[in-house]
Write a structure and sequence with these properties.
By secondary structure, this protein is α/β, with parallel strands linked by helices. The protein has a six-stranded mixed β-sheet with strand order 8-7-9-6-5-10, sandwiched between helices. It has a five-stranded parallel β-sheet with strand order 3-2-1-4-11, with helices on both faces. Helix 4 crosses helix 5. The two termini are about 25 Å apart.
């Protein structure tokens, strides 16, 4: 069974409600039909029901919940809540209401914040910055997490490495040059994401061009220090630094280069030292190994909000909703 099929199967066992605020995008409409047909999640579409249905064509989406900010009965309550959250920035109730009516993204995030949904997926028609801005302002980071990061879940065909070809790569989308402390938080968040999505123990390798002191450089020192911080913050997690890629994932090489490591040769979560290497790394594996790259999956937020590529297909939205549903399942426990 393919990884995404497993994710969908798990999502179907504990149905979550996910907001899709870009309801007028044809890909969102098609994805909603497929999500409802497969019983992956309950869907909230933001906008006027009649207008959305008029664009649906043959796609059956009447099983979704439609919420129009212009006629939403609890808008005053939501506006008061948002104004209270943003009072340090001088936001008034009137400004909060205007913002939610004009921005489906702010309204969608507020539906998550107020408990009407377990998560939100957007980005088919909006930039990453626009998607994450309301999430950071309203949901903020999860307890114990200092930054939001983004990972890709990689499914490599015909591969016995990692978790039978399944890996988490992080950070591949958000943080250009993380400090040692930030790398540590990315590692811990990535381990939690792996375990919530794959339901297996995370084995985290913090990558470098050096393995266990084979090279001396400030960039190596950054990764070594990140490993120390991560182990202090999460002593029960399997985390090791610093490891070259082959030492991290190839058992024979791991035993040779890091014989005392419990992670070397077995890693399924790979933490790249910067965004350059992370973004290049996931795209290399995606293209050269014909791997499926699911993401970016945002982590570190208090509640799940995930971004889409503006070039995405409807099936990409379906997959991201399924992943978001699993994140929502974990946070509801």
């Amino acid at each position: 069974m393919a990884f995404l099929d497993k994710v969908i199967e798990i999502a179907q066992k504990d149905i979550q409600t996910i907001v899709l605020p870009e309801a007028f995008d044809p890909r969102t409409i098609e994805a909603t039909h497929k999500i409802l047909e497969q019983g992956i999640a309950n869907i909230i579409l933001v906008g006027n029901k009649e207008e959305i249905l008029s664009k649906a064509g043959d796609w059956k989406i009447d099983g979704a919940t439609f919420i129009d900010p212009n006629t939403f009965e609890e808008m005053d309550k939501y506006a008061e809540a948002l104004a209270e959250m943003r009072k340090s920035k001088g936001m008034t109730v009137e400004e909060a209401k205007k913002l939610m009516i004009e921005s489906e993204l702010y309204f969608g995030v507020m539906l998550v914040k107020m408990g009407m949904a377990g998560g939100m997926v957007a980005g088919a028609a909006n930039s990453t910055a626009n998607v994450l801005r309301p999430a950071l302002q309203i949901l903020k980071t999860a307890p114990g997490t200092k930054l939001v990061s983004a990972v890709f879940l990689m499914e490599v065909p015909n591969c016995e490495l990692g978790e039978e070809g399944i890996f988490i790569f992080g950070d591949c989308a958000l943080n250009p040059n993380p400090t040692s402390e930030e790398l540590a938080h990315i590692a811990i968040s990535s381990a939690k994401t792996f375990e919530s999505l794959v339901h297996k123990e995370a084995k985290v390798a913090m990558l470098s061009f050096s393995s266990k002191g084979s090279a001396n450089h400030a960039d190596v020192d950054k990764v070594i220090e990140a490993g120390k911080i991560a182990k202090e913050l999460a002593p029960d997690m399997s985390i090791d630094a610093e490891l070259q890629l082959d030492a991290a994932i190839v058992p024979k090489v791991g035993k040779s280069k890091a014989p005392d490591s419990k992670v070397a040769g077995l890693a399924n979560v790979l933490i790249f030292p910067d965004l350059d290497s992370g973004n290049i790394g996931y795209k290399l594996v995606q293209r050269l190994a014909n791997a499926n790259a699911y993401g970016p999956v945002c982590q570190g937020l208090a509640m799940p909000v995930n971004d889409l590529s503006r070039g995405c297909y409807a099936d990409d939205i379906v997959g991201t909703v399924a992943l978001t549903a699993l994140q929502a399942q974990m946070q509801s426990k």
